Amino acid sequence: MNRLSRAPEADPLYARPAADRPSYATGMLLDAQDFTDEQTYHRGRLALALASLAGSGTVAGLRVVHLGETSGTDARPEEIRVEPGLALDRLGRLTEVPRAACVRLGAWFDAEAAADGGDRVRRAAYREVERFLSARAIAEAGAEGRPSIPARAVVADVFVRFVACARGLTPSFAAGPFEALDAVATSRVRDAYELQLALREGLDDRFDGLPAPGLDLAAIADAAARRARLQDAILDSYPAGGVVAGADGVAPLAEHPSGIDPTAVFLARVMIPVGATDPPLRDGRGVVVDGWSRRFAPSTMQLAQWIGAAR
User: Fold this and answer.
1) In principle, which of 95, 210, 273, 279 could form an S-S bond with 293, CB 3.0–4.6 Å?
2) What global pTM score does this model have?
3) Which domain covers residue 125, as residue numbers?
């Protein structure tokens, strides 16, 4: 991102605006707000359609992996890498990672441990961490060269969030009480992304901090009961007031810790093995990455393949 990123609430879609379309007439005086409102209308309608049809979550790609340090000519820092892909956030905004991106795990851990004397890292360190993992991650741990589940680990979650980046400065009249002749204004805004790796505090047997599981229709064997449950789910799915964001903003979900944008999309849970010391120190064992508790938003083609209807 080459330009300054705008704050999340600066995006008009953050408040899910009313569906008002600008109406034009010959001789009408227009200003920049009229064109912004037109963009907001079309963006809002598209976002509402995407969020309603697909929900939020991973649409394609965005696999998360841990890459360890190597030696020799191929030496590279340890990192948590997110592969290219596409996600939908809770507002229906497309969030694209066009090329692989990473968080330098060693530098991140050291910075977190030094920030407050290690208190936050200590609070994010747990034993019996299987309770905070998906069933698939537990089943695959230790197989095919994968790291085993550690006895004690610092738990952190990977998120991707939508970011609007101001670009393309162009000459403009000065705004506000100014008389500058060399003022500039943003002429382009690029839809971009930001990766976040967040420590998870406050987890226990009653709260794992993972996205809530969706409706499991496959568990209903009777076809009539399954159809009825789906119909009820559709009728009950429209949010109260018709918006995700209310007067107090967007409410966080279970997967959103304090300080994380509540529209950010959860991608994976990372288990960083640590020893018994406090503050916790890494013990050199393999990092476990669990990307299976995220929400998935499969395409209609993928759903057709699942039921055997695609050719």
Assistant:
1) 210
2) 0.89
3) 8-17+28-158+197-307
